[in-house]
């Protein structure tokens, strides 16, 4: 791992960050790649030769959007955001500034590398507080700024440790107490060099009674042997409201590994949506830690796996306080010879009485060659709760398909209509019409009806 040490030495930054990077790299070096013997990775194996990994090359900033990738140009012309960043590999290649009125209220939106330099106090307080390298999926995390407990299963942290050590950039959002940001903020991440890896990190902090929406999109052309590794930390303070949307549409050949965790305090709300459409292999961990009474977490996701794609989603709804609510709805589509995996846990701590938690996973199978594994789970340590979970998997309704085709609708369009209808109850919960339209366009391409 000498080359990783060299990369770390070139990262720069303050002493506290260098020390944390080194600690994470040491942990990464000591761990094994998760195997099928680890329950959380039972259906997914990632074959990677770390010695052959090389970082994505540097990219220069541009001043004209016409020089951005075509996919980014198209999205910027069809989405409503108040400000955005465009990252190509490790570098910010384009950005727009926040409106002056938001800057005057203390809102910060910049890339994480710049934030470390210009807002060191805030970044140091929260960075690594929600997604440290070593925290397992089923262990209580510490309050932001304190040290979490160690993982009892060290293989869980291999990729998180790498992301913590070698992240090159990402997005940083800070919304002060009582400030409401009306238009969404956005980050568009692309990669343009095959056979490389990029490690990114997103940190969003909503102080007391603040409100913001953040859209995190990832897109690329076909890139064989490429890895996108990342972490997303969402800090939602008392009474705050945060909506986080992640749309992963990497090109074929990309392996996507990301851990997302939200820390939700008293009477705060976290609405999250994870959309998985691209890449050859994708492993997404989506977790909410309900720390305070009255905390609320809505965890939505949809995915469409086709050809030989393998999509793995691992979720955790962790209730640590009484009178908290969480609602998880995952909907997926599998076609061709694709594989879908869902493993979800509702965990209720001893003192988390009056917990109200729901978990539902539904899969639509468009091919008899496709496979889907669903493992919903409950771990209840309180005796006055309302928790439920369920999972269903089935084919397209043939009567509905026949009805549409009998009206002269081609099979591809009929399937697109049925798939869109199947996913509609997830999309209907997202009050961002430009994003919904974009997702529906990807779905149409997947079923050949674009």
Could you give a quick summary of the protein structure above?
The chain is an alpha/beta fold.
Straight-line N-to-C gap: 45 Å
Provide the β-strand percentage band.
Answer: 35-45%
DSSP summary: helix tally: 10
**CA gyration radius, whole angstroms:** 21 Å
The major pleated sheet works out as: 10 strands, mixed
SSE pattern, N- to C-terminal = HHHEEHEHHHEEEEEEEEEEEEEEEEHHH
By DSSP, the count of extended strands is 19
Shape: globular
Strand order of the largest sheet: 2-1-5-7-9-11-13-15-17-19
Give the low-confidence spans.
135-140, 145-155
Please, could you describe this protein's structure?
The protein folds into two domains: 2-395, no CATH class; 397-450, no CATH class. It has helices at 2-9, 15-30, 70-76, 100-104, 112-118, 120-126, 158-166, 398-406, 411-427, 433-446; strands spanning 83-88, 91-95, 108-111, 169-175, 185-191, 197-206, 211-220, 226-236, 241-249, 254-264, 269-276, 281-290, 296-305, 310-319, 325-334, 339-348, 356-365, 371-380, 386-395. Strand 1 and strand 2 form a beta hairpin. It has a ten-stranded mixed beta sheet with strand order 2-1-5-7-9-11-13-15-17-19, covered by helices on one side. A nine-stranded mixed beta sheet has the order 3-4-6-8-10-12-14-16-18. It is of the alpha/beta class and 450 residues long. It contains ten helices and 19 strands. It is globular, with a radius of gyration of 21 Å.
């Amino acid at each position: 791992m000498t080359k990783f040490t060299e990369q770390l030495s070139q990262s720069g930054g303050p002493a506290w960050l260098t020390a944390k990077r080194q600690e994470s790299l040491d942990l990464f070096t000591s761990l094994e790649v998760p195997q099928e013997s680890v329950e959380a990775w039972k259906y997914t194996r990632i074959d990677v030769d770390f010695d052959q990994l090389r970082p994505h090359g540097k990219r220069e900033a541009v001043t004209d959007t016409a020089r951005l990738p075509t996919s980014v140009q198209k999205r910027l012309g069809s989405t409503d955001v108040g400000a955005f960043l465009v990252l190509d590999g490790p570098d910010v290649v384009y950005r727009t500034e926040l409106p002056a009125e938001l800057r005057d209220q203390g809102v910060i939106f910049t890339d994480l590398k710049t934030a470390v330099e210009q807002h060191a106090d805030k970044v140091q307080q929260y960075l690594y507080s929600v997604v440290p390298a070593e925290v397992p999926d089923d262990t209580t995390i510490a309050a932001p700024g304190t040290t979490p407990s160690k993982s009892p299963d060290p293989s869980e942290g291999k990729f998180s440790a790498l992301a913590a050590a070698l992240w090159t950039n990402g997005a940083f959002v800070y919304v002060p107490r009582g400030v409401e940001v009306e238009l969404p903020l956005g980050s568009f991440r692309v990669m343009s060099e095959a056979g490389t890896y990029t490690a990114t990190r997103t940190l969003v902090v909503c102080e007391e009674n603040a409100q913001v929406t953040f859209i995190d999109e990832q897109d690329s052309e076909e890139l064989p042997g490429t890895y996108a590794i990342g972490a997303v930390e969402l800090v939602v303070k008392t009474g705050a409201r945060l909506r986080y949307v992640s749309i992963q549409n990497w090109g074929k050949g990309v392996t996507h590994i990301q851990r997302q965790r939200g820390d939700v305090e008293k009477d705060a709300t976290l609405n999250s949506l994870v959309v998985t459409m691209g890449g050859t292999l994708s492993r997404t961990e989506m977790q909410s830690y309900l720390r305070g009474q009255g905390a609320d977490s809505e965890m939505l996701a949809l995915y469409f796996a086709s050809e030989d794609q393998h999509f793995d989603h691992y979720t955790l709804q962790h209730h640590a306080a009484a009178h908290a609510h969480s609602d998880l709805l995952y909907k997926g589509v599998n076609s061709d010879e694709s594989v879908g995996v869902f493993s979800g846990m509702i965990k209720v701590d001893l003192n988390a009485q009056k917990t109200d938690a729901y978990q539902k996973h539904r899969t639509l199978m468009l091919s008899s060659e496709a496979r889907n594994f669903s493992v919903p789970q409950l771990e209840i340590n309180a005796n006055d709760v309302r928790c439920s979970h369920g999972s269903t998997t089935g084919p397209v309704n043939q009567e509905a398909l026949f009805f549409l085709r009998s009206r002269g609708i081609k099979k591809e369009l009929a399937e697109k209509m049925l798939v869109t209808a199947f996913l509609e109850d997830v999309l209907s919960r997202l009050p961002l019409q430009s994003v919904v339209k974009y997702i529906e366009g990807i779905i149409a391409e997947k079923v050949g009806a674009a």
